[in-house]
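STRUCTURE REQUEST FORM
Protein name: Quinone oxidoreductase-like protein 2
Source organism: Trichonephila inaurata madagascariensis
Requested output: structure tokens
Priority: standard
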Amino acid sequence: MQGDIIQKRWSHYKAAVLKEIGKELEILERSRPKLKETEVRIKVRCCAVNVADTLICSGKYDQEPKLPFIPGYEFSGEVLETGSKVKNLSVGDKVIGLNKDTFSAMATECLSEERDLWKIPQDVAFDSAAALVDSYATVLIAARRANLREGDTVLVTVAAGGLGLAAVDLASNLFNAKVRNIN
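Status: completed
Returned output:
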């Protein structure tokens, strides 16, 4: 009997699930999906709630989710398990993540592609880390949509706030692009 309880605990997790557009989220138990080679299973500690989450749940987003749906794309947490081709993360690492394509972070755990996760220092609080993702996520999504490549030039019109600083940081340090500022 106890073995059955332990097995169930490890094969399921809880999530805030949207079953119908415009309705309230429900906390439900979900079966753990199988981990793909390039995915990482994260124990979610904090999940940011932002405009995209509210728009998608109300049916006003540019994508319509397949229901039932777990919202949440900006999060922080700890690595629980890694796929066979994950190279830069290990079990126990603290990370921030961006599940822009899959959402799914309003849960006790979620899966994320390794490329959408970044290690954070052990002394950074999970809530602060999750809040940081918003600016960086916006820049990362824009850079991917623009197909930003090494050597490209990025014009940042104002680098005084969080979004501008994130644009300079990611363009120069992640994409190795040239950054121009017209301040």
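Reviewer notes: Strands lie at 12-17, 26-31, 39-47, 74-82, 94-98, 109-113, 117-119, 153-156, 178-181. DSSP finds four helices and nine strands in the chain.
Form closed.
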